[in-house]
Amino acid sequence: MSRLDSLHSWHADWRGLRVAVLGLGVTGFAAVDTLAELGASVTAVAERVDDERRTILGVLAVPIVDAGRDDVPDALADAELVIASPGLRPDHPWLLAAAERGIPVWGDIELAWRVRDKVRAAEWILVTGTNGKTTTTQLTAHMLREAGFRVAPVGNIGTPVLDAVRDPEGFDALVVELSSFQLHAMAVDGPGALWPHSAACLNLDDDHIDWHGSADAYRDAKAKVYRNARVAAVYGIDDPATQRMVEEAEVVEGCRAIGFGLGVPGPSDLGLVDGILVDRAFLDDRRRQALELGSLDDLEAGGLRSPHMTRNVLAAAALARAFGAEPARVRDAVRSFRLDRHRTELIAEVDGVRWIDDSKATNPHAAEGSLSAFDRVVWIVGGLFKGADVGPLVERHARRIVAAVAIGVAREPVREAFARHAPGIPLVEVDTADTGSVMRLAVEAAAAHAAPGVTVLLAPAAASMDQFEDYAARGDRFAEAVRARSDREGGAHGDDDGSRPTD
To answer: Where are the alpha helices (DSSP H) in 176-264?
Structure first.
């Protein structure tokens, strides 16, 4: 047995293990901090390091190697193990160099699983999907807190799992949001393989194809979430891809497949009956009875009543019920939950026009849910499409789109999609190199086509990094532009500085 095979506990002997941590973002820094605490001989390798982290690692006596993407760091020559940031593509030169040297590569999730017993080993509940991961992770954790469990939402949601496993009080459960990048790196067998309590893949649509290399590779990464699930494998009834994942998954004997959807649920499913959220999975007489978990009216205050948000609630309820949350506590959690910003957030309602920020809709599948929630829309769309095709989205929702405003550096995908599927719909392109004015121009262009009863919807169906720091910055600029316009008496309609109709 190799030394790495023996390292499946916080209390194993990690002292002196030579580890290179690649990347010093949130997860990379947590990995370095953890390994230093374990007594490993750790070196951090990064292209960029902020001043605060550089100072902290100096105090910890952790050396930092500043390396460019194409510079294979000397730290790899002596490493026994590499911990890689989830953002590093499989073809990154550092990872290729590690593979050539035969150095094992773990992700932060595998390291966290191996050392999860520092205080007490919490149960892990895994959540992935193309869209809805963060909201479902938050909802699940909120429901379990209402039920009296000590729980933390962690992982891709922003808080590293490695920080949670070192919490001095420990947790009953960790609800772990997993990106396809983290799943790609996750071990499926051996001492580093996860054995989660329950797992959910909410939905599947093309995303991050440029990173994974193909739609099949992306799907295969997502499917790993169900591996070794012990209690419940939760999937979307109206998403055949997730159902196939569950059917093909290697789970522990006795693990149940639990479906969720917006229709009347069958036995072992959660769904809707006359506007009531019901559970036909976690009760003895599930063939003849159902348990009430709340109503659609209960979802209203938290911004959860749209179809895609209701699906997230049902998925979270399935995970929480599988862990033992009582129906009344699930209902209480649904009533008290509030969405994070930039998720179908109402910014203003002026003269009968609603302005909605769903900047978190960073791919077509996410924008699908937003568009479906409104009858008449002026749609602000565009950015980095990452290989995804926006055409089918335009085709499906052409009847509800009053006009569209295209943002982004490369707007050809939007222009071509409307020319092909909806040539009669007005399309305005925000053509400016001044990224600071993008949203002001987009809002003015949208206002020119809005009328009472219309929703102006920022649901870009694309990533933001071509013009903004991230989706939150994009949403913030939209909100600022909307509020500035509503504060100006008369609400000027702009037709200058690069906003122009397409031919």
So the answer is: 180-185, 209-212, 215-223, 240-248
CB 164 within 8 A of CB 150: no
CA distance 432 to 409: 8
**How does DSSP assign 13-42, residue by residue?**
--TT-EEEEE--SHHHHHHHHHHHHHT-EE
Are 258 and 281 contacting, i.e. CB atoms less than 8 angstroms apart? yes
Tens of pLDDT, residues 134-186: 999 999 999 999 999 999 999 988 899 999 999 999 999 999 999 999 999 99
What are the domain boundaries of the chain? Answer: 4-106, 112-336, 345-501
User: Look-up: residue for tokens 């004997």?
Assistant: 253
Q: Which CATH number fits domain 345-501: 2.30.42.10, 3.40.50.300, 3.30.1050.10, 3.90.190.20?
A: 3.90.190.20
Asked if 292 and 274 touch (Cβ cutoff 8 Å), the reply is: no
List Cβ neighbours of 175 (8 Å cut-off, separation of 6 or more): 125, 127, 137, 140, 141, 144, 151, 152, 153, 154, 319
Tokens of 230: 């012990």
Residue 21 corresponds to which tokens in the numbers above?
């941590």
Per-residue confidence band for 240, with pLDDT thresholds at 50, 70 and 90: very high
pTM score of the predicted model: 0.78
